[in-house]
Specification:
The protein is of the alpha+beta class and 361 residues long. It folds into 2 domains: 199 residues, no CATH class; 143 residues, Endonuclease, Chain A (2-Layer Sandwich). Helices cover 38% and strands 27% of the residues. Helix 3 runs antiparallel to helix 4.
Length: 361
């Protein structure tokens, strides 16, 4: 997965093409950071981009001779505006500074020259230190043109999005995420409602779809958990995530899924923890076969994780059970909760990705 990010150093437009970091992206749901609004803007579509860029530039302190926002890409009536990193550098450098003195003017020129010389290195250094809640990108798409204006979808991406995308292991707190979202929303309001006299279009709230949730019990008289696991695996189309002891019981189905190209990752414990307990040989045998089937890059040993979970695409099963015959077909009493709630499944997947450390890179 790749991203394009444009910025200016001097008068040169530079484009990066970087791989997203799975480690970074797995922790944060960017949908909680990006502000989105729908507006009716009383401006003819032929003049829209010029009006928007004028409002964007009017929203920042003017530093003579330097651009602030620019049109990064344009496809028909869809526009992508980006903040000039050079301007942000100058904005931070000159904040509270008297630019009328020769000493300060010379200092600014020297710092700016150094910034330009370093090029992309300066960009990444600056990106790490810059305020996360600053607006960085604005997207505008015209969805309908009318005689008196345009119906548009708008988005504001704060600097935090870029920091999470391009800085591996970038640390952020929930408060930073909330602040970045609120500042992005406020920025859209300032540009479109205050600046362009746009009218906010309230989306009719749709009733949330009903989600399926089931409580399942497995004991010597009923093996409902296994009966739920089998169709879940049979219906897999993209991904299977497992956390817990895995025996040979499910290996035939996992082999079939692997042949279909399904992404399978397993987080488990070392079998030495089962010393003296029934089922260790089965787990050992399964581990050898899973290493051969999936490779060390898709298996993680994490003794701190005591949760038992199976995620198959948009479905999840959480409970007390392990994924072996003793737990699923024996006399043990186990329970599990099955859910298709999108938020819960997404949260489980995100946490799994966060703590998953492969045996081999």
């Amino acid at each position: 997965m790749h991203a394009h990010f444009m910025y200016t150093v001097g008068k040169t437009l530079i484009q990066t093409n970087l791989s997203f970091s799975r480690y970074t992206m797995s922790k944060i749901d960017l949908e909680k950071i990006i502000a989105r609004q729908k507006y009716f803007i009383p401006v003819n579509s032929t003049k829209l981009k010029d009006k928007i860029i004028k409002e964007l530039n009017a929203s920042w302190q003017v530093i003579a001779g330097y651009s602030r926002w620019f049109l990064s890409t344009e496809h028909g009536l869809s526009f992508h505006f980006t903040i000039a990193m050079e301007h942000l550098f100058l904005f931070e450098l000159t904040y509270g500074m008297d630019l009328k003195t020769e000493k300060n003017k010379k200092l600014v020129e020297e710092k700016l020259a150094e910034y330009k010389r370093k090029g992309s290195k300066a960009f990444y250094t600056h990106l790490q230190s810059i305020r996360s809640d600053l607006p960085a990108e604005v997207y505008v798409s015209v969805v309908n043109r009318e005689e008196k204006g345009c119906l548009c979808k708008t988005e504001c991406h704060p600097m935090l999005c870029g920091q999470l995308r391009f800085i591996k292991g970038f640390k952020t707190e929930e408060l930073d995420i909330q602040r970045a979202y609120l500042e992005s929303k406020r920025f859209l309001e300032m540009i479109f409602e205050s600046g362009l006299s746009a009218t906010l279009i309230s989306e009719e709230k749709k009733k949330p779809p009903q989600t399926i949730t089931q409580f399942l019990i497995s004991d010597q008289t009923s093996h409902k958990i296994l009966k739920k696991i089998e169709p879940m695996l049979d219906g897999a189309t993209v991904e299977v995530l497992v956390c817990g002891w895995v025996g040979t019981l499910l290996l035939p189905k996992l082999r079939v899924l692997k042949e279909k190209g399904i992404n399978i990752r397993i987080m488990t414990h070392k079998s030495t923890e089962l010393k003296g307990k029934p089922g260790r040989q089965d787990v050992d045998r399964a581990h050898v076969e899973l290493m051969s089937l999936l490779g060390g890059e898709n298996i993680s040993m994490n003794p701190e994780c005591h949760f038992r979970v199976l995620v198959v695409d948009n479905k999840a099963l959480v409970g007390s059970m392990d994924f072996n015959a003793i737990s699923l077909t024996g006399t043990h009493r186990e329970f599990a909760i099955y859910t298709e709630d999108p938020e819960i499944v997404r949260s489980i997947r995100n946490y799994f990705n966060q703590v998953f450390t492969p045996l081999e890179q």
